[in-house]
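Mods, move this if it's the wrong board.
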Amino acid sequence: VQLVESGGGLVQAGGSLRLSCAASGSIRSITVMGWYHQAPGRQRDLVARISSSGVTNYADSVKGRFTISRDNAKNMVYLQMNSLKPEDTGVYYCYCNADEIIIPDRFREIWGQGTPVTVTS
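Not the wrong board. Structure tokens:
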């Protein structure tokens, strides 16, 4: 199972970006999907996550600006980022908690390689 992110890039403050993440491989089921942000020289922090039923959680710093959504049929998760600020700069990592067809009910965390976002002032 692997995750591949896309949609990062360079944007001016106040602008928007939409990140996408596709899970592929021998997936049996996925529970939580989400996004983490790692600013330069900082630890990786949770941005938002969404359960299989659509329950969402957001970091306080992005509430009202970012929206997470997912397409369960396509095993994809999205992050719509509006009103971007320079402090949103960094690498955004997609993750999920999933089990595989060959090992049912053994859930594990899977991470993408990250997509960079740069917000200029």
